[in-house]
Design a protein that fits this description.
Layout (H helix, E strand, L loop, with lengths): L10 H8 L4 E4 L8 H11 L4 E4 L1 E3 L2 E2 L12 H7 L2 H17 L4 E2 L24 H17 L3 E7 L20 H17 L4 E4 L16 H16 L9
Parallel strand pairs: 1-2, 2-5, 5-6, 6-7
Antiparallel strand pairs: 3-4
């Protein structure tokens, strides 16, 4: 899912699309022109291309950079406690993306904001309570689907209990397996039950499960797929850590 410079697709990107590139990621620098025309050109090079964008609302908005988004942050939505409003916001974000020819939002953030000193999640999370984060994450996913857009739950297996920004360092979560199961993984399971289309992994080490970062961990990818299977079947089985 590469990014690129400018408001027009460079030749290398168009050639990659023709050769079968699966997806492209928009940033604010790509959206200063006519995004719908940009998307039409890229989809013309590969109709099945998935165009995605980090559009969460609040401070994380590629269409409204600098904190100017008209859509509330996840934290504001969670504090309001109205999942219908969260679903409506997800739909509004989805309509924005649809008008620009963008197929998917890299949202919702379903991390549980359990560390108030977290430097990167904070108000991007719906709640510090797993059940609330789960309910709002599912509602936001459903809202995106109402607008015909795909959703991506992030940052698996959970970035809420960290004091390191994974963009600049390697966070380590010291939670044990039982706490992970009853806290971090609850919103991801709810998102899968809501039909979330993708899961974005976090560059996070969880020693209780694997010494490798989750983003490159075979064990975490296997566990994520197992969790998705339980969510779809409703099985109450415990997480198979081994």
């Amino acid at each position: 899912m590469p990014g690129f410079l400018g408001t027009a697709p460079p030749p290398w990107l168009l050639e990659a699309c023709r050769r079968g590139l699966g997806s492209v990621l928009y940033f604010a620098q790509n959206l200063g022109g006519t995004p719908a025309a940009l998307s039409r050109e890229l989809h013309g090079a590969r109709p099945a291309l998935l165009i995605a964008c980090d559009e969460e609302g609040g401070a994380v908005s590629r269409f409204h950079p600098g904190g100017a988004s008209p859509h509330p942050s996840h934290g504001e939505l969670g504090a309001a406690g109205d999942t219908a409003a969260t679903r409506a916001t997800g739909r509004a974000v989805g309509e924005l993306l649809r008008a620009a020819g963008v197929d998917a939002a890299l949202a919702p953030v379903v991390d549980v904001a359990c560390d108030p000193d977290n430097p990167v999640i904070g108000p991007r999370a719906f709640s510090d309570r797993p059940e609330e984060a789960a309910a709002h994450g599912a509602a936001f996913t459903e809202g995106l689907h109402d607008a015909g857009r795909a959703a991506a739950a992030k940052h698996f297996p959970g970035h809420g209990d960290t004091r390191t920004d994974s963009h600049v360092g390697l966070p380590v979560i010291t939670a044990g397996q039982e706490l992970l199961r009853t806290r971090e993984l609850v919103p991801f399971t709810a998102a899968v039950r809501a039909g979330v289309d993708m899961v974005m992994s976090g560059h996070i080490v969880v020693p209780a499960v694997d010494s490798a970062p989750a983003s490159v961990s075979r064990r975490w990818y296997r566990l994520g797929r197992c969790a998705g299977s339980w969510a779809s079947t409703g099985s109450p089985s415990p997480t198979p850590w081994t």
